[in-house]
Design brief:
The chain has 136 residues and is mainly β. It has one helix at residues 123-135; strands spanning 4-7, 11-13, 16-18, 33-37, 46-51, 56-62, 65-70, 75-80, 85-89, 94-98, 105-110, 119-120. The strands form three sheets. The protein has a five-stranded antiparallel β-sheet with strand order 1-9-6-11-4, with no helix packed on it. It has a five-stranded antiparallel β-sheet with strand order 8-7-10-5-12. Strands 2-3 form a two-stranded antiparallel sheet. Bound molecules: dTDP-4-keto-6-deoxyglucose.
Length: 136
């Protein structure tokens, strides 16, 4: 499975560091939504779904967490532990987020507005979906 991560340019000086995220520049799509999760409780695992079309970039802007990606054939775990690192997740990829540090803030930039119809929340339905896609 091909994993795409980004190392965002840091604009640092003696005041600190600033990172800028811009659509179709260092983010590979038009940004239509931004959401973030924090105060994630110990031991929590979130996600457990894929998207039919949504593309997203995940950035753990504070603290750390891990992302499991699964394309239906292979699984890989990507640690997110630096605010200058982005993980690109395209459609048809099952994801689970876990191992959140107490201070973790996971920010997500998405190319579409929230649409529950784009979610595949059942793992067997996900496997059937990717298998059908590979036959097309
Ligand atoms: C994803 C991973 C990385 C909204 O009302 N608007 C939104 O934009 C989002 C993302 C969620 N919600 C509502 C829907 C649920 O009632 O917030 C609640 C929690 O959402 P969910 O259980 O889907 O959260 P996660 O952490 O399992 O998944 C989220 C995104 O939904 C998903 O697209 O890829 O983060």
């Amino acid at each position: 499975m091909k994993i795409t991560t980004f190392d965002f340019e840091e604009h640092g000086d003696d005041r600190g560091i600033l990172i800028s995220l811009e659509e179709n520049k260092n983010i590979p799509f038009d940004i239509h939504r931004c959401y973030f999760m924090y105060n994630t409780q110990p031991g929590v695992r979130r996600g457990f779904h894929a998207h039919k079309t949504l593309r997203q970039v995940l950035v753990c802007v504070r603290g750390s967490c891990k992302i499991l990606l699964d394309d239906g054939t292979e699984k890989q775990v990507v640690p997110l532990d630096q605010p200058n690192k982005g993980l690109y997740i395209t459609a048809n990829t099952w994801r689970e987020m876990f191992d959140f540090s107490e201070d973790a803030v996971l920010m997500v930039l998405a190319d579409q507005l929230y649409d529950e119809a784009d979610y595949i929340r059942n793992y067997d339905a996900f496997l059937a979906h990717v298998s059908k896609k590979s036959e097309e």
